[in-house]
Specification:
280 residues, 10-stranded mixed sheet, alpha+beta
Amino acid sequence: MRILAAAAVLTVLGSATACSTEADMRAVDRADAGATPDAPSGGAPTPVPEGEVRTSGLVTVLDSGGGPEMCLGAVAESYPPQCGGPALADFDWGDVGSEEAAGVRWGSYALTGTYDGSTFTVTDAIPAALYDTTAQPQPEPLAAACDEPTTTDTAKATPEDLDATLAAASALPSYASAWLTGNTINVAVTGDAEAAEAELRRTWGGMLCVTTVERTDADLTQVNEELQAALGDQLLTSGSTSPDSLDAQVVYDDGSVQEWADATYGDGLVTVTSALAPVG
C-alpha cells in the first residue's frame, strides 16, 4: 500500500457515514471499481505572464555550474541538494543566504521578476534570512471526513490493530483510499460505506470514519498520468491530496490551464495552482 503525506484541505465528495479529525498522512492503494475519465481531447495551454510575477514564498536557487536556476518543483534532500528549473537572469546571491559545497551553490530566496516561459529575470531577491516567514504560505491541515469520530473498543486500537485495519481496508472490493487524521482511520470506498465500516470493525475499535466517493485511486492515477503527458515541463507536481480529486501545480497559470482541466475532466476533479503569481 502506498503512503502519501497530504498537505491540503480534505474535501470529501459524496455522502459520509462515519468519522475523522485532522491530519498528516493518508494511505492509498489501487482499486478497479468506478468509471475511468476520458483522455484529454486537446493540448493544454502554456500561458506566459505579461507583467511582473513573484514566487509563492521561498524557493531554492541552485547553480551547479551552468548558471543559477529557480527550483519551483521538488528538491532532492542531498548535500548539496539537487533540483532544476527556469534559468535566472540578473540574479545576485547577496551577502547572506547561500551555501557552497562540491562545486554547487544554493540558497532559499523569495523572487520577483518577469518570466518569458524559459528564463526568469530577477528584479528583487530576498534571502531566507531576511524574509518574513509569516508571509510564507502554509499548507492547510486535513479537515475531518465526518463530524464526530466514534469508537467501539479502545483496547482494540493498538499499532498492530491499525496496520491490520489498513490492510483490511485495501482489500475491500470498493476501496478507494485511506488516510490517518490524528488517531482516526479514514477510509473512502465507492460502495456501501456501512458495510465497509462493519468489516473494518473486526480489527479496529478506535476512532473510524468511512465515506463514499465517486472515483477510485486507479481512476485518479490514470488522470494523473494524462496530466503529466499533457502539461509536460510546465507541470511541477501533481497527485491526490483528497479521496476524490487531484492537485496539479504548474509554473504559471493565468486561469487558462484551470479552464482546460475543467473542460477536459469536469469541474472539481483537478485543481490547478500556480507557482508564480502576478505582483499587485
